[in-house]
Write a structure and sequence with these properties.
alpha/beta, eight-stranded parallel beta barrel, 12 helices, globular, binds 1,3-dihydroxyacetonephosphate
Length: 251
């Protein structure tokens, strides 16, 4: 049985004290969430150390939102996978569309980042998804297949145990426009097939595929009821502990 996950991506929100308070609220409410749902919070890099302290001993796992494509050295401003791991974080998001769009994150860089994250025992949440233009041109299957293949086909079935995929249609992120559960299920099932084509049905069956894009308490139940949707990667609604936990209780 693949792991159900609800992960919050805080993006560039909250100061350190605000983040610590939010993490405390999530930890306090996490006891309400069934134990088969894994909770993850991805915080800005500045928050990882103090938030690691807050989540210690709880069911909430900590994630970075990104890490560098280089191991170490003269890369001013970058944060390595080893640095992320040394904070106590156990996950990192990679390939978020905002990083692909605004910071030139290419599939080639994502291969390097994924290698370094896995080498430092971090689990990876790899984001894929088409933009509006690609969706309207009917290219969403091709775009998602290419993103999955370009990165994940460089890894092994063993590596896939530590990789989660998040399907996030760019047109649904922060727009209030959620993909319908049918639209999301269709592409989740397709992504699972792309994984199966390389790694076999068993690995594909065990791979957690999250939906992200305006997921909120009011639509999470319908999305999570789909057979190939194994949880969510939550942006805006993860900034309110009540909403985040309500989403996690929507299976
Ligand atoms: P929203 O939930 O704010 O649409 O963001 C989704 C997202 O990008 C999570 O990574």
């Amino acid at each position: 049985m693949r792991q159900k996950i609800v992960a919050g991506n805080w993006k560039m929100n909250t100061t350190v004290p605000e983040g610590v308070e939010l993490a405390k609220a999530v930890v306090a409410k996490s006891v309400e969430v069934p134990s088969d749902v894994k909770l993850v919070i991805a915080t800005p890099a500045t928050h990882l150390v103090p938030v690691a302290d807050v989540v210690k001993g709880s069911v909430v796992a900590l994630s970075a939102e990104n890490c560098a494509d280089k191991e170490k050295g003269a890369y001013t401003g970058e944060i390595s996978a080893a640095m992320v791991a040394s904070t106590g974080a156990t996950y990192t998001i990679l390939g978020h569309s905002e990083r692909r769009q605004y910071y030139g994150e290419t599939d080639e860089k994502l291969v390097e980042k994924t290698k370094l994250a896995l080498a430092n025992s971090l689990k990876v949440i790899l984001c894929v998804g088409e933009n509006l233009e690609e969706r309207e041109a009917g290219k969403h299957f091709d775009v998602c297949a290419a993103q999955v293949k370009n990165v994940l086909y460089n890894f092994s079935a063993e590596d896939m145990k530590n990789i989660v995929i998040a399907y996030e249609p760019v047109w649904a992120i922060g727009t209030g426009k959620t993909a319908t559960s049918e639209q999301a299920e269709e592409i989740h099932a397709f992504i699972r097939k792309v994984v199966a084509d390389k790694f076999g049905a068993e690995v594909a069956d065990d791979t957690t595929i999250l939906y992200g894009g305006s997921c909120k308490p009011s639509n999470a139940k319908e999305l999570f009821a789909q057979p190939d949707i194994d949880g969510g990667l939550i942006g805006g609604a993860a900034l309110k502990a009540d909403d985040f936990i309500a989403i996690a209780m929507s299976f």
